[in-house]
Amino acid sequence: MTTSGGTALQRHRFLVLPPVGFAAGAYALPQSTKLLRQLVPAMGPVETLSGVPVRVIASAASDGTKVVELTADEVALLQAQAPGLRSRRPSSSPV
């Protein structure tokens, strides 16, 4: 995949978090909880609700915060599929 400038899209590490806190709870929509539970650490990419291949690096809980590798566009696709999900890119993200 390339951008209009001809360079490859970079995959970065992101934190994917529930709407409030570090684990899904009363404030999480069912779509967000379901997506978080589907994201489990594995050896290769995992297909998610939106068909985006996600590499899960680490998981704090089955329905909690995940460390994943994605492009910024893929993060937006996940958030469209699971409204309320938050994402943060750590300040240093060696990939």
Number of strands: 5
**Strand order across the largest sheet:** 2-3-4-1-5
Helical residues, percent: 10-25%
Overall pLDDT confidence: 79
Count the helices. How many? Answer: 2
Order of helices and strands: EHEEEHE
**Poorly predicted runs of 5 or more residues:** none
Instruction: Compute the CA-based radius of gyration.
Output: 13 Å
State the shape. Answer: globular
Largest sheet: 5 strands, antiparallel
Strand content: 15-25%
What is the terminal separation in angstroms? 17 Å
Structural class: alpha+beta
Detailed description of the structure:
The protein has a five-stranded antiparallel β-sheet, with helices on one face. The longest helix is centred in the last third of the chain and has 10 residues, at 72-81. The protein has helices at 30-38, 72-81; strands spanning 12-17, 46-47, 53-59, 66-70, 86-88. A hairpin with a 5-residue loop joins strand 2 and strand 3. It has two helices and five strands; from the N terminus they run βαβββαβ. With 95 residues, the protein is α+β, with helices and mostly antiparallel strands. The model has no long low-confidence stretch (mean pLDDT 79).
